[in-house]
Specification:
This protein is mostly helical. It contains 13 helices and no strands. The chain folds into 3 domains: 104 residues, Serine Threonine Protein Phosphatase 5, Tetratricopeptide repeat (Alpha Horseshoe), CATH 1.25.40; 108 residues, no CATH class; 79 residues, Methane Monooxygenase Hydroxylase, Chain G, domain 1 (Up-down Bundle). It is elongated, with a radius of gyration of 22 Å.
């Protein structure tokens, strides 16, 4: 990267907080519940992580047991009771039965997978991650256990971030990135994995952004370039994933806030390193994204014309653009 002699101090804090206004829905309000219960419009469950599927399709679970470690007749009855409770969203009762099966010595991967789903939807994230890990140990090809572990890692990273445990949060975000990328290699059209990956990239880029600017101020250009490149790569992943979600779910606000915030963060980082033209281009992308929320584009109405975060960010981005284009 080339650094100019006069670099604008361009709102590092704003770039860090810009993306956090998007809806970090709890697992209970995420599409996770519908995926546990099952979507009648979805396609059949894939047979293993290596199965191929059209890009527009999303995987769906079936209420089946794992042939590698079959349940006894009595265990299967209890498992089916738990599945009925899941369908009714009586998750605490379903959890009790699934834990009973585990404590009874069950080594069935589906029992652990569904226990992970129940914990996840109850926001019991450490327990969810442990159950998903057990499911993957018993059945390494379980796609849903891998995706569940990725989404649980994402949300646990967010909890750690709110608790100001940034290094730990960063590690969980990176783990979520890796797991959800593995999911997308098998099913490129899985919108939940794609959106989760976008949010994990946003989370992971926070610490990288701070590290790059800290290195720049304390050690100079050469020391700062590696973490800056790393940050830009992660932001690129997040923007790509968020924009994919926007194309498929045109009426959702969250992905647009996420995309706009990542464009802003990248613009500020590029500006700090003297990449002025690229910074202006990204701030214009951020403006267009926020405008699409408030005003619409291409003849389409705005997704949420009264969204306060979009209004705030749009105002800030226009201010930056004016300053940068005037040479400040």
């Amino acid at each position: 990267m080339r650094r100019t002699t006069n670099i604008l101090a361009c709102g590092c804090l704003m770039a860090l907080t810009a993306v956090t206004g998007c809806q970090w829905n709890s697992p209970r309000t995420w599409p996770g519940v519908s995926m546990v219960v099952g979507d009648s419009d979805a396609k059949a469950e894939p047979s293993g992580a290596s199965a191929q599927k059209p890009a527009q399709a999303e995987p769906q679970k079936k209420l089946t047991t794992n042939d590698a470690s079959p349940l006894s007749v009595s265990e299967e009855q209890r498992f089916n009771e738990a599945m009925q409770l899941v369908k009714q969203q009586r998750l605490q009762e379903a959890k009790t039965i699934l834990i009973e099966l585990v404590h009874g010595g069950s080594h069935n991967a589906d029992v652990f997978r569904w226990l992970g789903d129940v914990h996840y939807n109850l926001m019991e994230l450490p327990e969810a991650m442990e159950a998903y890990k057990q499911a993957r140990n018993l059945n390494p090809g379980d796609y849903f256990a891998m995706r569940g572990l990725g989404l649980s890692s994402l949300h646990y990273g967010h909890q750690l971030h709110k608790a100001k445990k940034q290094e730990d949060a960063h590690n969980y975000y990176r783990n979520a990135l890796e797991l959800l990328q593995q999911c997308l290699r098998s099913y490129p059209g899985d919108l939940e994995a794609m959106y989760g990956r976008a949010m994990a990239a946003e989370g992971a880029s926070r610490l990288l952004y701070v590290n790059a600017l800290t290195k720049l101020s304390q050690s100079g250009q050469a020391e700062a370039e590696p973490p800056a490149r790393n940050c830009l790569e992660v932001i690129d992943e997040g923007i790509s994933a968020a924009n994919f979600r926007i194309q498929k779910k045109t009426n959702e606000v969250g992905p647009r806030l996420l995309s706009g915030g990542l464009y802003l963060r990248r613009a500020c980082l590029l500006k700090k390193f003297g990449r002025n033209e690229d910074a202006v281009s990204d701030i214009q992308n951020a403006i267009q994204t926020y405008e699409s929320i408030l005003q619409g584009s291409g003849g389409q109405p705005g997704v949420d014309p009264n969204n306060a975060m979009a209004m705030q960010q749009l105002k800030q981005c226009r201010s930056y653009l004016s300053q940068w284009q005037s040479g400040n």
